[in-house]
Design a protein that fits this description.
single chain, 197 residues, mainly alpha, two-stranded antiparallel sheet, 8 helices, 4 strands, 54% helix
């Protein structure tokens, strides 16, 4: 029977070292887990998804554009519901700011998305007002595509977040024996002689 530390060392050589958080990225595989996004944020994401699906089948470009832009706004609201903090300055509280203005402060990684959708707010207002030609077919198609990507990014941010494996803690004590290696059995002593049978 092999000595346990030799077996453990052989097992470590075969499987290799644990991935290092400071080593190359190729040896670290993130594991997805559910995050604890508040129910309000999850509800807003569901509403945004439903709005986007509705926008894809509406008949006129104005309706499609306005509905898709509303889905983007609900997606931004989900981020604000999950990460937002109340305004502490009385001056800031007195002034009403759009979600597109607040979003970069709460989630800087979404700054470009915020600028994109803020630039379409006036067109959305014209489309909702029924102004003929406020949004063309291509405008609506492009916006639907952009909102779909934005929604997927936010869902990953709030719902599924990658978690890197933690480095192994070497305590200097030997690892638990492998399941396939049975512990040696010591028979009870009877009169100083082991039981033969």
């Amino acid at each position: 029977m092999a000595h346990y530390p030799a077996v453990a060392a052989q097992r470590r050589r075969v499987t290799g070292p644990a991935p290092s958080l400071t080593g190359p990225a190729s040896d670290v595989h993130p594991v997805l887990r559910r995050a604890t996004a508040p129910p309000a944020a999850l509800d807003l994401l569901a509403q945004a998804r439903a709005g986007l699906e509705e926008a894809a089948v509406l008949p006129t470009p104005n309706e499609r554009y306005a509905t898709a832009h509303l889905a983007a706004l609900r997606t931004a609201a989900a981020v604000l519901a999950a990460r937002g903090r109340p305004e502490t300055s009385p001056r800031r509280r007195a002034r009403i700011r759009s979600a597109w203005e607040v979003l970069p402060e709460i989630a800087p990684e979404l700054t470009e998305w915020s600028a994109l959708f803020a630039s379409g707010a006036a067109r959305r207002a014209r489309a909702e007002a029924g102004i003929r030609g406020a949004a063309g077919q291509r405008d609506a198609d492009d916006l639907i595509r952009d909102v779909a990507m934005f929604l997927r990014i936010v869902e990953r941010m709030l719902v599924l977040q990658p978690v890197l494996p933690q480095p192994r803690q070497d305590t200097g004590e030997p690892d638990d024996p492998a399941p396939s290696t049975p512990a040696p059995r010591t028979p009870p002593a009877r009169g100083g002689l082991p039981d033969a049978g």
